[in-house]
Amino acid sequence: MSNSTSPPFKLNNSELWGGLIGLALGVFVVWSSFKLKIGTINDPGSGYVLFYTGILMGLFATTIVVSAVTEGGPTFASRWEGARWTKPAVLIACLIVYCFALEPLGFLISSIPLMLLLLRAIDPVRWPLALPLAVLAPLGVWWVLKRMLLIQLPAGIFDIG
């Protein structure tokens, strides 16, 4: 009988379940790549990159599962202790409002207030920095998408952009 102590195997190990989900996702990606036809290295098919991506996902997930079984890991409850939900909830609410405002108001009119709100509420930035960033960042993105890449963005009821 050996004297070595190994961590007990627990089913509430969050890393074990995360690795198993990742492994299942990798198997699904590999299976989907076969449906798209993999092809060869000289004539790759639609599923060529997906096949190797799925294999890598499976390998990484397998190492996580092996590590979780041999070394143990944190429980689900310990992962959520002390979690602060206010900022993520505000962020999700802002993005939902943005989704509904994008089409009627247009890209620029809806993106500038979103940026300002995120810069001030989520990760507070001083006003002298937040205002130019909130205006220039959406303008820069709009210019690249609309003028350089010729992507049509919602102009909104004011026909701006």
Helices and strands, with pairings:
Layout lengths: L13 H22 L12 H24 L4 H5 L5 H20 L1 H16 L4 H22 L13
Helix pairs in contact: 1-2, 4-5, 5-6
Folded structure, characterized:
- The protein has 161 residues and is an all-alpha fold.
- It has six helices and no strands.
- Helix 1 packs antiparallel against helix 2 (48-71), helix 4 (86-105) runs antiparallel to helix 5 (107-122) and helix 5 (107-122) packs antiparallel against helix 6 (127-148).
- The longest helix has 24 residues, at 48-71.
- The mean pLDDT is 89.
Question: Which structural category fits the helices and strands?
Answer: mainly alpha
Q: What integer value in Å does the Rg equal?
A: 24 Å
| Distance between the first and last residues' Cα | 75 Å
Q: Write the H/E string, N to C.
A: HHHHHH
Overall average pLDDT: 89
Count every beta strand, where a strand is a DSSP E run of 2 or more residues. Answer: 0
Outline of the structure:
This protein is an all-alpha fold. It is built from six helices and no strands.
Question: Which properties best describe this structure?
Answer:
161 residues; mainly alpha; flat
